[in-house]
Please model this.
Amino acid sequence: MSDNVLSGLAEIVEEVAGVAADDVTAEKSFVDDLDIDSLSMVEIAVQAEDKFGVKIPDDELANLKTVGDAVNYITSNK
Amino acid sequence: MTSFQAPQASAGSRIIGLGSYQPETVVSNHDLAARMDTSDEWIRDRVGIVNRRIASKDEGVVDMAVVAGTKAIEDAGLTPSDIGAVIVATCTMPSTIPNAAAQVADRIGVKAAPAFDLNAACAGFCYAVATGADLVRAGTARHVLVIGAEKLTDWTDQDDRSTAIIFADGAGAVVIGASEENQIGPVAWGSAGDLSETILIADRDSFIHQEGQAVFRWATTQIAPVAIRAAELAGVELSDVDVFAPHQANLRIIEAIAKRLRNNGAREDLKIARDIVESGNTSSASIPMALDHMRAAGEISSGDVVLMVGFGAGLSYAGQVVRCP
Model:
């Protein structure tokens, strides 16, 4: 289940931020490694909400530092 | 019981004149980077602005509105005495009274016209066009001058790099007149007062503060549906829309909304207003300024179907389809 979430999230990150999906791996930090700013994080969250049927409010978003954090959050809240 | 007389209604209304004014002083990203911790690259990436226009100390909302309004009247082929009402959409007057509109009317030469300001922040222009269109259709006024005019820099903390890079000054105006064929569609509008704290000026001694992420989320998810509804109300397919003119809030918001419109049937060759790049965010002035600039540059033409939508503090939103004058 996690793998589907990771690949789904990677697709979204590629679409929003132009980062190659293959580069979107669990240990990567959104800001430091993938160079994704806070506005793009909102776009990613909105698309992830649609795709996975979860709610990711802005204050939760602040805690999702790495791709793995996001995958865990989505998986636990689906 | 006999009823009272009603004004002479007309079948429809349309925009018959367009004009704008922006101050001479240009502030570039490089100018800002020289005095605060920011960079040209960061600003272009985050908001899409390269230059913005700033009013001089002696130049106010009323001054800018007068120039834009005068140009719109000339563009309509009218004289000030033809104007039956003046509405100024603004939220940046230096004090509450007198309003801008009465002063603007007087200075333009529209004697004794009904005149009022309308505060719906960045949705103000579309709110005012809706109101003006209804005044004309109902027969309350034959020609309505609608102006969006703002001096946002009066209310912006020039040391706050999150707002100083965005907000700018200017004015845009249209004249609305009666028309056998209705060329201003019904307005799709509303408010989200539960989010009112996300863009605010706390009191008369404070500056504009906004919660960037919350506003971005709202604008990129809630505004495309408003634009789509505006097209529906006008009886227009999204594929028939030639020009998309959203409030010039932030280039990334503009692109996000445009993308959603294209996903819903708007054409790939949809012309999109991106005046923010050279003008900054001028709140209620941004839509008419963008349209005036695009028309002058030949990017849009008289007769084009324009879908405009304003959104901002309130939170407020309003959009309608109009024919480009």
User: Anything to note?
Assistant: The mean pLDDT of chain A is 93.
